[in-house]
Amino acid sequence: MTTYDPASDGAQMSFDGRMSYGDYLQIDTILNAQSLRTGAHDEMLFIIQHQTSELWMRLALHELDAARRAIAEGAAREAFKMLARVARIFEQLNSAWDVLRTMTPSEYTRFRDGLGQSSGFQSWQYRLIEYAVGNRNLAMLKPHAHRPDLTARLEAELARPSLYDEALRHLARSGLPVPEDVLSRDLRSPWIAHPGVQAVWETVYRAPEQYWEAYELAEKLVDFEDYFRRWRFNHVTTVERVIGFKRGTGGTSGVQYLRRMLEVELFPELWHLRTSL
Ligand code: HEM
Ligand SMILES: N[C@@H](CC(=O)c1ccccc1NC=O)C(=O)O
């Protein structure tokens, strides 16, 4: 029996002057970006885990941006699909912790010193996601001061209405009584839970059939935050498992800092209304 040759089935085998898989996807660029600083076996895992996370975050930002635009243009239904995709991306990021968790403290210690003061705390894409959805803490701009291009991107984001701002503007346009001070708020400031906003969401949740689109939008936001919270929880648990209560390379208290971040509520009214419904 002769070995099967896919060329006989028409497979393209010559890429001289033609765009190939690697050309289109710039595989060489991606696969040349793992510069290990130590000889530690697990450093490759650590780098790839972060690089893949950053790629998924890139897609999440692309989707969040488009979802926000769709809501602003009154096409909320189109946004639902994108928000569902963002939740799935976070599910992907959540599953990825299972791979990193196979690294023990002994293994991490072999290359941790090589990380210097670098830390996920300095991930500008992560910060951009937080800013885009509405968690706007200006103090988080500081680690990017040495990169005017990134600072400008984060600043540009702070000048725009967040995903939550756009959702509330959408409710206002559809006739719901969103308080004026919310619609004209200083966009750069952190979101503070507002009783008037909770009252509006309560109206929606008390009569879903009457406000179906707003109801669906609300549940998509809650879904997203649910997955985001799981990411934070997986992170802090992995960190405790690997470095215990050591300070972070980024200079924070480590687990204590990350536990504090677990208290962040992106869309507080959507969670609070559940108690009063
Ligand atoms: C062994 C693995 C990991 C350890 C020990 C670890 C540890 C830490 C610590 C201690 C912090 C607090 C900041 C600091 O002082 O450094 C932090 C923040 C952060 N890490 Fe990790 N991390 C790990 C994996 C990851 C992975 C896989 C990602 C994915 C991109 C990530 C993303 C982040 C982000 C975005 C922050 C900032 C969180 C915030 O400000 O709310 N980390 N990490
Ligand atoms: N903050 C971590 C180091 C760390 O995890 C890290 C270092 C460089 C690039 C990304 C990282 N991931 C998340 O913080 C630590 O204190 O060990």
Automatic annotation (TrEMBL):
Pfam families: Trp_dioxygenase. Keywords: Dioxygenase, Heme, Iron, Metal-binding, Oxidoreductase, Tryptophan catabolism. It is an enzyme of class 1 (oxidoreductase). Heme binds at residue 235. It catalyses: L-tryptophan + O2 = N-formyl-L-kynurenine. Transmembrane segments: none annotated. Its EC number is 1.13.11.11. It comes from the Bacteria. Pathway: Amino-acid degradation; L-tryptophan degradation via kynurenine pathway; L-kynurenine from L-tryptophan: step 1/2. GO terms for molecular function: L-tryptophan 2,3-dioxygenase activity. InterPro entries: Trp/Indoleamine_2_3_dOase-like, Trp_2-3-dOase_bac, Trp_2_3_dOase. Its cofactor is heme. SUPFAM superfamilies: Indolic compounds 2,3-dioxygenase-like (SSF140959). Homotetramer. NCBIfam families: trp_2_3_diox. HAMAP family: T23O (MF_01972). Belongs to the tryptophan 2,3-dioxygenase family. This is Tryptophan 2,3-dioxygenase. It comes from Gemmobacter denitrificans. The gene is kynA.
